[in-house]
Amino acid sequence: MLPFVLRLRFIIGFLFLPSSIFFLQAQELKPIQLPLPQMEIGKPLMQVLSNRHSTRSFDSKQLPLLELSNILWAAYGINRPESGHRTVPSAMNWQEYDVYVALKEGIYIYNAKSNGLDPVESGDLREFTGKQDFVKDAPVNLIYVADYSKISKSGKLTEDQKTFSLIDAGFIAQNVYLYCASQDLSVVARGMFDSIKLTEILKLKPEQKVILTQTVGYPIISRKEHSMNTISKKVTGIGGIFFKCKDPGKIKEWYEKNLGLTINEYGAQFEFRSIDNPENKGSLVWSPFKEETKYFEPSKKEFMINYRVDNLELLLQDLKKDGVQILDEVQSYDYGKFVHIMDIEGNKIELWEPKD
Predict the structure, then answer these.
(1) What is the pLDDT of residue 229?
(2) Upstream peptide bond of 298 is cis (omega within 30 degrees of 0)
């Protein structure tokens, strides 16, 4: 029989060692399959160029995977699958860069071919991606690593090759800048970081070198803006009901004859007044469309609902943060602003900020 002390050590080891193992296993990173990037979103190019700027303050709120997928595809995605060419130019088609992604849960490397994230190191290591205070709280820090072995077998570069490779990093960073300007995200490229520490964390080979880092996240908003933003998410009512039918003319006649709807060119309009402000008059539109209409696309559904909102621009900021699919840009008319989104079941939604 084992002495009491040895038995006690064995029991303590049995109780505590497995729990630490389980904890390490819980912290182990797993590959992440990213959703397909959204090809139909974005502001006009000249507007994006006008809005492009650097920001050094970031909200700590995490980005949804769809947003991250869009950012990484813009940065270094494959836009011509048949050739494997990227969204950015590359001198001599070296494609010498790897994009590492530092998130709260750990660091990954972007796999453009599979559109996924492959694990590199677990744990929150964002603070080591730069010497600025904001990097430790910003949701995403991108690390651009050049692999010189893809340029030269020896890993040693001529001065021209070094210059060309640095330019390649600039292309990647600029694509991220432009995407962020289009989606109202905060972003800044950074050259201040501990390259020795990053090299150690990323387990880089001698021929690999960290060239540039870039921080991405949501902008910080004031308390007043936050209050307005919270209110903006509330739908204030139904603005319209649109549906497909074989013959809109006959449908309108039927509803007019049998249900007493007052029909106009577009369908019927129901007026109402606000309870809080009786002087404020609004309307709800009922409108049939031909079966072959493209107005409901890309949805395949037979109907579309228009929702009235208080502040369309602020609502869109929230929707983008939550990864909601935005189908087009805001359009302004004499009677209000419009934009279209998709819900999780493929229903197209029309959002309307009216001028009542």
Answers:
(1) 53
(2) yes
Options 3.10.580.10, 3.40.109.10, 1.10.1660.10, 3.90.1140.10; which CATH number does 32-220 get? 3.40.109.10
pTM summary value: 0.62
How many angstroms separate the CA atoms of 56 and 80, rounded? 34
Whole-angstrom distance, CA of residue 330 vs CA of residue 311: 12
- Angle, vertex CA 34, rays to CA 30 and CA 35, nearest 5: 145
End-to-end Cα spacing for the chain: 89
Q: What is the pLDDT of residues 37-61, one digit of tens each?
A: 999 888 999 999 999 999 999 999 9
Residue with tokens 């009512």: 237
Buried b (16+ CB within 10 A) or exposed e, 118-156: eebeeeebbebbbebebbbebbbbbbbbbbbebbeeeee
Q: How many residues does the chain have?
A: 356
Q: What angle do CA 96, 102, 107 make, to 5 degrees?
A: 80
CA atoms within 13 A on the CB side of 7: 4
Tell me which residue has tokens 């390490």.
Answer: 24
At 318, the pLDDT band (50, 70, 90 cuts) reads confident
Torsions phi, psi for 88 (to 5 deg):
-125, 150
Query: Nearest to residue 62, comparing CAs of 99, 98, 25, 32?
Result: 32
What SS3 class is residue 345? coil
